[in-house]
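== Item description ==
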Amino acid sequence: MATIATLAGVKVEFLEFPPVVSPPGSTKSYFLGGAGVRGLDINGQFITFTGIGVYLEENAIASLAPKWKGKTPAELIQSLDFYRDIIKGPFEKLVRGSKLKKLDGNEYVRKVSENCASFIKSEGIHSEAEEKAIEEFREAFKDRVFPPGSTVFYRQSPAGELGLSFSKDETVPEHEHAVINNKALSEAVLETMIGEIPVSPALKESLATRFFELFNGVN
C-alpha cells in the first residue's frame, strides 16, 4: 500500500524522477504518477531516446479512484479508458521529457506535432484553431537542440492550457517559454505518450503499477 508520502521515485537509465516536484514560485506540488523510457526499434535493436515522467496534482487520486480502485495493474494497462481518464482528468499535469541522447528540436517537434495532428483529426475536432495551435507548438521548438540530460516540461491544465518550458537539466524553469491555449492539442500531446498508440509503453506500465498501489491507499 502506497501513499504520496511514501511514494518512491523512478530511475530511467541515468535519469532520476523524484517522487514529488514543486515548480518555482508555486505553492502546488505534483506527485509522480509514473515514468518510463521512449525508444524506437531500429534494425532489430531498441534505441532509447527519452525518459518521460507524468506528474499530477494530488486530487488526481481521488478523482480516478472511484472508477479504477480494485482493478489489477494488468487490467489498468489493458484499459484505454484508464489512460484517457488521466489525459482528460480535471487536475493539472506536469509532463517531464528528459533526453537520453542528443535530439534536434526541429526533428523532434515535427514527429510529435504530426502524431498530435493525426490524433486530433481522428477525433473529428480539427479546425483552424487547432492548426494555429500546432503551428505555435512547432515554433516553440524551432532551431533548438537538446543535449543529453536536458528537459522539456509540458504543463497541462484542465482548461486546456499547454505551458512549455525548457531546461538544461531536470530543474523546472522559473518561467514558461510559451503557453498555448488549445485543449485538443494539450490532450493530444499526452495521448501520443500514453494513449492508444503510445510512444512509451513503459510509461503506461509504470502508471498502472503505481496507481494500483495509490488506489489501495484510498479509504
